[in-house]
Design brief:
- It comes from Kribbella jiaozuonensis.
- Pfam families: Sigma70_r2, Sigma70_r4_2, SnoaL_2.
- Interacts transiently with the RNA polymerase catalytic core formed by RpoA, RpoB, RpoC and RpoZ (2 alpha, 1 beta, 1 beta' and 1 omega subunit) to form the RNA polymerase holoenzyme that can initiate transcription.
- Keywords: Sigma factor, Transcription, Transcription regulation.
- GO terms for molecular function: DNA binding; sigma factor activity.
- By secondary structure, this protein is an alpha+beta fold.
- It has 2 domains: 146 residues, Butyryl-CoA Dehydrogenase, subunit A, domain 3 (Up-down Bundle), CATH 1.20.140.160; 120 residues, Nuclear Transport Factor 2, Chain: A (Roll), CATH 3.10.450.50.
- The protein contains 11 helices and 8 strands.
- Strands 1, 2, 3, 4, 5, 6, 7 and 8 form an 8-stranded mixed sheet that branches.
- The longest helix has 23 residues.
- The chain starts with a helix and ends with a strand.
Amino acid sequence: MMGADLISRARAGDAEAFRALSEPHRRELQVHCYRMLGSFHDAEDALQDTMLSAWRGLGGYDGRASIRTWLYRIATNRCLSTLRSAGRRPAKAWDIPGVEPPEPTRLGEVVWLEPFPDVLLEDAMHVPLGPEARYEQTESISLAFVTALQLLPPRQIAVLILRDVLGFHANEVAEMLDTTVESVKSALKRARAGVQSRRADQEPPPAADSPAENALVTSFVQAWETADIDALVALLTDDVFMSMPPLPFEYQGREVVRQFCATLFGAGRRFDLIPTRANGQPAFGAYLRAPNGTRHGTGLYVLTLNRDHITAMTRFENDTLQPFGLPRSLPGR
């Protein structure tokens, strides 16, 4: 009865009633938009548009689905519009002065990828999942999974997330997307095959903040801050993968990653790392030491781990620091 009363008041223009209806779902909708779009900033925009559309369109809510499902329908279609537009973040040219990188293994496609702060996941990882959910919540927010999603066609992204991550029934998804159950099943089959073809079989990562993870992270920080190439390379798997969106350069394999890091450190660049977490993974704000002692934020590093090695390193631009509560610079020591 309380829900019906809130809906009635919200329809009459009561902003507080609408907030009471929508706010419990805000964080999980933000994560949903992020999974679909792969960009923290695009997800923020999509979430704001979703809430505005819901506020304006509440008169059209017929009560057949829950408010949560109705909001997911709006958010999903808002994200689909973004995915189909031509306005995604373009690739960026190499711009690190005094550093000439080695030839990349390949050029990446998902140059708009951004990290998602773990602190914002806390209220979104315990949402009630439908009976058809197939992914662990931690895996479904990992950089590898989000990247794999971005390589699918837009409709397949939506169907895979709604069905396999959130566990909505096929008929619910069909209604959200204004399509048929048969179309949903077909898109899901193709999406699963697309994601599976890009998922690497590897040992699971150590548990967050476990002794194993802490030991590996501590060794990485020590090696990176002291520019100890040999110690750093010893932490990497043979097929380690390195990327740096929005730069399209991607490096695969221990030797070429060694070359890249040696070039970086060989140019005299030295860093301090401030720990945080992104996408359920260890992450660090990276601060370049200036001659005057000031340390300027240059980006955010996110590590992907297996049981006892680093399998991937992703470096993001310094405009990703702010959502993590990290400053743009640090005072001199």
